[in-house]
Structure prediction request, 603 residues.
Amino acid sequence: MVAGTLALVALGFTAPAARSSASRVARASPVTMRDFPKPNVENTDNYRASTALTEKLKSLSAKGGSKSVAIVGGGLSGLAAAKYLVDAGHKPTVYEARDVLGGKVSAWQDADGDWIETGLHIFFGAYPNMMNLLAELDLHDRLQWKMHKMIFAMQQLPGEFTTFDFIPGIPAPFNFGLAILSNQKMLTLWEKLQTAPPLLPMLIEGQEFIDKQDELSVTDFMRKYGMPERINEEVFIAMAKALDFIDPDKLSMTVVLTAMNRFLNEDNGLQMAFLDGNQPDRICKPMKKYIEARGGRVLTGQPLQAIDVDSATGEIAGLRMRSGEVVTADEYISAMPVDVLKRLVPERWSTLPYFKQLDELEGIPVINLHMWFDRKLKNVDHLCFSRSPLLSVYADMSTTCKEYYDEQRSMLELVFAPCSPIAGSPVNWIAKSDEEIIDATMGELARLFPTEIAADPTWPSTLSQGPDGQARLRKFAVVKTPRSVYAAIPGRNKYRPSQETPIPRFTLCGCFTSQKFLGSMEGAVLAGKLAAEVVACRAAGEPTQGVKAVEETVTHAAGTMAPRKPRGVIGNDAVAFGGGSSLTSSAADELKAFDPAQLVPLG
Prediction:
């Protein structure tokens, strides 16, 4: 989920007319920003469970004494872990390698002062732990809620869109069903009726049925249960690329069913909101302030060199930083991305099945684009699925976001996906130049919106444009994240590790760890909260959830393997630490040193 990640997002160049969801969204004049009241996100079982866990952590604050906790990684998961640890009376210190917080939601300013974001991130009503966190930090007013609807670009009718409209007052799952049934532009009634039966076990059996589908791709599931092929073209392509930057023939059906199960069971689960500004100032800074006000610390520019291990016991002995400092604490939490963690697993731990299973997980590449135009494009103040071969989702941030608001000129933020072979692309776009990526994107925008984009010799893909198109690109930024959220390809869910590890005093978090909200902002926050629970319960002498069982095949492989020395983290660019980067030539050299497959030309 974007983004990372579940950003079921995008915009179009045209605004939806105030008609029923059965109608097409026709081209319209530029629109202005309009926000909607915060929906009731609290009246759900998942939100109540999140609140209960918060209260449990607070109740443990008087038990077992205060522990020092070293947390490696200042993304959402590490910050969430620290926040809930101070609530539980402990003293965490967050060590972030980069000079910015946020991890996959980090952002920075360019020479012009414009914010460059790692990804386009959207907040959903069905994000109970994120909504609970925002309430606890008194940050709900920083979300700009949009109309409860979904918008899809119509591939056969360039420049036009169709919508799923959610009628107020109708409870889930009937509101979702009615929104789909009343739309007459994407699927026929017979196709909709064929689609429903395979999804009924999801509602009846719940997570047990959902987890069993992990061995199937979305395409395999469709064909196994006789779903019409056109559902793939009309809906699943958009969903797969938005959920995990991947094509449906590569994505585990468990991911799609998990998302659908959440959205179908919560009245306002699919209502979406933008953050009203950049993530570091609007989310990360308040989290840092909260943590430090309660005795914790949040440090940046603190890259980890190695995890030191006690030679006698095999337990963690400390964190050796690049600076030469050795950090010791009562407890340790890794909030590093899985690809970074794998490069730092100590040799002594490498043959343990728990750590061996990490070999089955890897981050998915994704590219985020910022494109500034010389005029205002016709747009919607909302999100939309592009259903484009190259573009996952995108939004005109000059209309949807207060900090970036501009009535005169548009700034599009787009997710370019899939962008690598593992995600289903025949081209390795990570290895392409920024100019090649932007030219391909301009060509796609010109095809989708022929009356908007000008023929511009700078971008050869636009040269077939007619005289109506006037908008020219005046500036762009390309952010490449070679290893983003874990690749949710079939058969991988069972390898996601528990937060608790077999190493005493060493805990994991991050959205790749085992939790029910997958690779997303929500998953990151929940994983951090669960890691805090492990530490707090252990300190208080309370029982923990335990270590998740490892697959027998992994246990066997671990028993026959030779110990591996850690490769370590090479370089100083954001990509070395699992983040996104503009990938300068020096950063590309660093990437080539530790992940050369990312830069192999293909297509």
Notes: The CA atoms of residues 53 and 533 lie 8 Å apart.
